Amino acid sequence: MAGRISVSIAAKLWLLLLNLAVVMLVSAAKSRKLIETNMVFYMHDYETGNNITTIAVAGNPKKKWGILEFGTVFAIDDPLTVAYDRNSTQIGRAHGIYVNSAADGSDLHFLMSLIFTNKAYNGSTLEIQGADLFFLKYREVSVVSGTGKFRFARGYALLDTAFIDIPNSNAIVRWNLTVLHY
Ligand SMILES: *[C@@H]1O[C@H](CO)[C@@H](O)[C@H](O)[C@H]1NC(C)=O
Ligand SMILES: *[C@@H]1O[C@H](CO)[C@@H](O)[C@H](O)[C@H]1NC(C)=O
Ligand SMILES: *[C@@H]1O[C@H](CO)[C@@H](O)[C@H](O)[C@H]1NC(C)=O
Ligand SMILES: *[C@@H]1O[C@H](CO)[C@@H](O)[C@H](O)[C@H]1NC(C)=O
């Protein structure tokens, strides 16, 4: 009888300790502070000329594929630089796709990873998704997640076109990105 009571007390104590451990883990997670990081950089998107960064890979079979043509899908490997100059210091690259997703041709839907190679965020990535309504002066896309230093990241980026040459499908887009992360 006495033996059975002490077993159940031990079991209760064990459960109590387990609960405490769980509570402590949860509060440790809560006490980690979110950091806000802001960065401005330039994305170089070249379909023609030397060192092409963007290729049309699919589209409407009845039309000529292009950035203005609904349904055209592009694969990209765009350099991200600190300044407008294509030869300025590179901080990473944008890998992924964009697709013209508006019947009137006005929206390039972005779906891409920003892969950082600069000292501060080397190897970390941010995931971008959103509507690039590129006829607007400023538009906003979401930062939906991240890896490395940007785990649990969430945020947004304001985009504006610093340079555009529609006939040759070349553009430089300025990004002003704000992200919350641990
Ligand atoms: C193209 O890439 C090559 C090799 O990386 C580089 O030497 C050259 O400067 C680049 N050209 C332009 C216009 O960026
Ligand atoms: C970048 O460097 C390449 C090779 O040195 C050069 O041909 C090109 O004109 C430069 N681009 C700019 C925008 O300065
Ligand atoms: C980034 O990481 C790679 C691989 O670990 C390394 O080769 C490279 O030198 C690093 N770059 C910087 C700027 O720290
Ligand atoms: C970047 O965007 C923020 C708003 O998110 C704005 O306050 C800030 O002035 C912008 N910075 C630059 C350099 O454009």
TrEMBL record:
InterPro entries in UniProt: Allene_oxi_cyc_Dirigent, Dirigent
Pfam families assigned: Dirigent (PF03018)
Transmembrane segments: none
Secreted found in the keyword field: yes
Alphabetical UniProt keywords: Apoplast, Secreted, Signal
GO biological process, one term: phenylpropanoid biosynthetic process
GO-annotated cellular components: apoplast
PANTHER family assigned: NUCLEOPORIN-RELATED
Function: Dirigent proteins impart stereoselectivity on the phenoxy radical-coupling reaction, yielding optically active lignans from two molecules of coniferyl alcohol in the biosynthesis of lignans, flavonolignans, and alkaloids and thus plays a central role in plant secondary metabolism.
Family: Belongs to the plant dirigent protein family.
The protein, known as: Dirigent protein
Organism in which the protein naturally occurs: Tetracentron sinense
